[in-house]
Amino acid sequence: MSWYKPADIGFAARTALADLGEAARLFVRLLGLGGASLRRFGLVRDQIHFLGNYSLAIIMVSGLFVGFVLSLQGYYTLQRYGSSEALGLLVALSLVRELGPVITALLFAGRAGTSLTAGIGLMKAGEQLTAMEMMAVDPVSRVLAPRFWGGVIAMPLLAALFSAVGIIGGWLVGVVMIGVDAGAFWSQMQGGVDWLADVGNGVLKSIVFGFTVTFVALLQGWRAQPTPEGVSRATTRTVVVSSLAVLALDFVLTAVMFNI
Fold it and tell me: Is the dihedral of CA 118, 124, 126, 128 positive or negative?
């Protein structure tokens, strides 16, 4: 005996399509509100400060230790082939191409994304969004759009800081602690890293991840049930969905950018 009736499968498919359509409409609307949000830049600036500045500590500390590990592991691998002078190139390419955007997006989802979801969910539970609608104030324009564009702007800046601090961490371990020649470390990095193919693609990845993580966080908060349990479930879904979306998009973008 089948556990699912055809009617149940059809209802689930229709519900999924309706949710997808609602999410697409909200995303298009947030994109369309970009000009209006940037004209009221004070609201966006506050969100950049809230999402970006308050995430600096975990981003920079994580970047430093990732640089430590990359330099340590990379040195012992390159030493086998007599290429330890290329340690700076290895650290820089690993960070600006891959680890910088991806790890920053995952940390951003865990720190800023959950905060966005919880904030929107609590506003919904406290009927603040309904009160705004009764006062003829559009909550999407006033609440969601500034947060969306603040997250989109903050994400590439955090990824750049992560990569920069990671390179400094790689220099500390490789040059100061292990003893790799400092000139070779920096010259190999400067000669091997291309601004467009490597740094530019890394920045593009971080922008795409910023759109993805911020939108998922706002969508989950917007859809959250107005109860404590509903807000907690929405916060958990934000981390899970954002992380999976970032990893999947990273594979697609890497395949497209680097012709793999």
Answer: positive
